[in-house]
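Input structure tokens:
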């Protein structure tokens, strides 16, 4: 496999491979430079990146499972038997777990930073701190640009969350560049006593900025896990099915809609008059095709079931 294929930016897995590789670089740099410089902010950046690496690997694993099941059809018989409904439900679980862990790490770092402020701050090796912050800022900015351009075509929620992670990491690095640069300017001045407080103060600001960011992702993931009906998709299905029922003279219908990660699960029951319920099977299939085409969004991630019945009880 060539590097070009391995990091194929037209493929969801290729984007994740590039992201994981760069995150490992940033994580190792952060942990090493955090120890050398004595900076809690840099150490937090490294730990954050390491956590992001683990979650990206988990996301890549889920993407492989979904693609193997829905696109290539290549999946072990054992997995296919155990997960006959597919793997879409894993995506919101990963998104929710990722967002929750990011918030938890930021809260923990915030508590430590506040404690450091009250204890008199920390002494830093400014040269190493500034060099690390500049390097990570450049890497984060590049990854946000590369992944954002790739995701315009791919449209992956997991990549979107990964981009958010790089954006947060870039904000952290940018804040560190400013704070360490200010600390360098303060040294040797009457305000030099503030220098030890720069690192924990920067970490407090960064954590306060980070904590609210994953809230929307967690809320969306929780809604998917709980199978909360997406209002826009439900309204569209009701409109299209209502027109279909009226056009073909059916008496009633029921529609059930759910979203689980990238999947759209739609189940429709259509009630036919008893005197018109006896038709060749081919006619029912043609009617299903017509309604399915009207609903749209046909693809491997749409799970559509259309059932015709003459008894409303089967639809309730």
């Amino acid at each position: 496999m060539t590097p070009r294929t391995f990091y194929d930016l037209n493929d969801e897995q290729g984007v994740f491979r590039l992201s994981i590789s760069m995150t490992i670089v940033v994580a190792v740099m952060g942990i090493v430079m955090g120890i050398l410089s004595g900076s809690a902010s840099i150490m937090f950046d490294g730990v954050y990146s390491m956590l992001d690496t683990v979650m990206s690997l988990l996301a890549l694993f889920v993407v492989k499972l979904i693609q193997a099941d829905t696109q290539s059809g290549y999946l072990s018989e054992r997995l296919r038997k155990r997960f006959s409904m597919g793997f879409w439900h894993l995506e919101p679980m990963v998104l929710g777990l990722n967002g929750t862990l990011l918030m938890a790490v930021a809260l923990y770092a915030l508590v430590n930073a506040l404690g450091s402020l009250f204890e008199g701050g920390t002494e830093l090796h400014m040269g190493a701190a500034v060099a690390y912050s500049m390097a990570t800022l450049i890497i984060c900015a590049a990854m946000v640009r590369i992944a954002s351009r790739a995701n315009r075509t791919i449209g992956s929620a997991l990549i979107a969350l990964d981009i958010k992670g790089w954006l947060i990491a870039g904000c952290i690095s940018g804040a560190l560049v400013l704070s360490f640069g200010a600390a360098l300017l303060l040294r040797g001045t009457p305000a030099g006593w503030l220098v030890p407080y720069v690192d924990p103060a920067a970490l407090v600001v960064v954590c306060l900025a980070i904590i609210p960011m994953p809230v929307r992702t967690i809320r969306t993931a929780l809604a998917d896990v709980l199978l909360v009906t997406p209002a826009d998709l439900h309204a569209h299905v009701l409109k299209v099915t209502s027109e279909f029922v009226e056009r073909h003279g059916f008496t009633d219908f029921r529609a059930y809609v759910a979203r689980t990660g990238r999947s759209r699960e739609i189940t429709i029951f259509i009630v036919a008059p008893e005197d018109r319920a006896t038709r060749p099977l081919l006619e029912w299939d043609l009617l299903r095709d017509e309604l399915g085409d009207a609903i749209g969004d046909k693809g491997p991630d749409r799970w559509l079931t259309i059932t015709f019945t003459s008894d409303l009880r089967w639809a309730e």
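The first strand starts at residue 252 and ends at 260. The radius of gyration is 26 Å.
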